[in-house]
Amino acid sequence: MTRSDTAFPGEASARKTALSRRGFLRGLGTTLALPFLESIAPARVLASGAKALADSPPLRLAFLYVPNGIHMPQWTPSQTGASYDLPPILEPLAPLRNEFQVLSGLTCNTARANDDGGGDHARSASSFLSCAQAFKTDGAGVRVGISVDQLAAAHLGTYTRLPSLQLTTETGRQTGSCDTGYSCAYTHHISWLSESAPAPTELDPRVVFERLFGSGNADEEAQSVFLRSRYRKSVLDFVLSDAQRLEPRLGRRDRRKLDEYFSSVREIERRMVVAESRQGLPAPAPPPGADQRPEGIPADYQEHLQLLQEMSVLAFQGDVTRIATLMYARAGSNRSYGCVGVPQAHHSLSHHGGDEKKQAKIARINRYHVEQFKAFLLRLKAIPEGEGTLLDHSMVVYGSAISDGNRHTHDDLPILLAGGGGDSLDSGRHVRYPKETPLANLYTALLQRVGVQTDRFADSTETLQGI
Q1: Domain at 58-203+297-467, CATH class
Q2: Distance between terminal CA atoms of the chain?
Q3: What is the secondary structure of 251-283 as a DSSP string?
Q4: How would DSSP label each residue in 323-358?
Q5: Whole-prediction pTM
Q6: Which end of the chain is least crowded, N or C, by CB within 10 Å?
Q7: Angle subtended at Cα 442 by Cα 188 and Cα 172, rounded to the nearest 5 degrees
Q8: Are 64 and 73 spatial neighbours (Cβ–Cβ below 8 Å)?
Q9: CA 243 to CA 369: how far, in whole Å?
Q10: Domain with CATH 3.40.720.10 in the chain
Q11: How far apart are CA 408 and CA 131, in angstroms?
């Protein structure tokens, strides 16, 4: 099979020495980043071409957003500490109760109106990771603030092929009004590159996959996509030569780990092909252009969401990126959830007015989202890395900047913090903080753990303790 011998800038020209020291395999239109392998950990080549010591797995940050608030009476534990009882919405996480902590009492003041009137959903999304007040506009002049994920990406992005990954299950919009005078850019984005530029999001699993494993050469990538589709090849077939060179240099444990990683990649490819075939999409046309990529967004919400979560896991496992965000749905989403017996629109239900039947349906949606979150955590936990697991070396925030969707409250937020943070987090507890404790205090603590030298983020007042 034809393959590319082009290396990243700065990589050693002698392949026999470079192969054992780099963290990726290459082929036609393909770059396959490797998981953390102890056999090659002492020196890994960065995307910039520099070399860095990597004798322990890196830390990852993920932020998962859910819209329209939570039915808080069935979310908040009545006890604090390690012996708390899981409330109904969080019950699916019982097998993982030692892998996450419930953080109560946190507030996002910038999601409040603060004299700007309506638009709580737009503000809850735009301020979830920025903790900044969105400038009210439905046209030009969109402005909020750099988000915590992008601040972390600015610090960690030089170590990986992609600085960050932003995923969503609903089509993003940049223009028009989506919430009481607020631009759609606010409701469709939680990640902000700067105060005026939302980070581009992606909802097509196939496009995400090609980003994770592409070479950066548009013509070669288009050819690779076409050949894989026509001849039913895996992306792994295009790096087979490098893989065969690498395998003899790996220990038994690393060989098993690499085989498991390859199996995960193959399974993702299989699931994408199944999803695309259900959509009745034709095979991609031959190149000339890199724009001609297959599209096949699954019609089934759960299948779509789980594929995007799997993409995040693969990106973390291969150290393609260390920062990821995922919107389970856009702010104010009116998606229905017939799969759990809720055919009504989510946002409309959230304005329940005290109706117990509507509250029960909201709780059902909330629990369903937690079940998807559980699947994400289980995947991270199932992947060995160093002396622990991928989950041990991750910090995952799940929640929203709106608590009660009926009253549009932004205090006592529904926030979960999962993962071990490289042994820096004390999971398995419910921690209650004083009223009006800024959500930004949590983000300050997470930034410090990934090496960002700061004692302040957005409207934080201090570094959150006790996590």
Answers
A1: alpha beta
A2: 51
A3: -HHHHHHHHHHHHHHHHHHHHHHHHHHHTTPPP
A4: EEEEESS-TT---EEGGGTEEEEHHHHH--TT-HHH
A5: 0.89
A6: N
A7: 5
A8: no
A9: 38
A10: 58-203+297-467
A11: 16
- The CA distance from 97 to 79, in Å, is 14
Q: How far apart are CA 403 and CA 414, in angstroms?
A: 6
Quick check: 342 and 351 in contact, CB under 8 A? no
DSSP state of 141: -
DSSP summary character for residue 202: B
Rg (CA), the chain: 22
In this structure, are residues 403 and 428 in contact, taking their beta carbons and an 8 Å threshold?
no
pLDDT tens for each residue of 126-163:
999 999 999 999 988 999 999 999 999 999 998 899 99
* Contact by Cβ (8 Å): 442, 148: no
pLDDT tens-digit series, residues 344-393: 999 999 999 999 999 999 999 999 999 999 999 999 999 999 889 999 99
Question: In sequence order, what are the beta bridge partners of 45?
Answer: 51
Structure tokens at 99: 């892998």
Query: What's the CA dihedral at 443, 449, 451, 454 to 10 degrees?
Result: 40
Burial class of 97 by CB neighbour count within 10 A (0 to 12, 13 to 18, 19+) = middle
Hunting for tokens 């592409």 — which residue is that? 214
DSSP state of 74: G
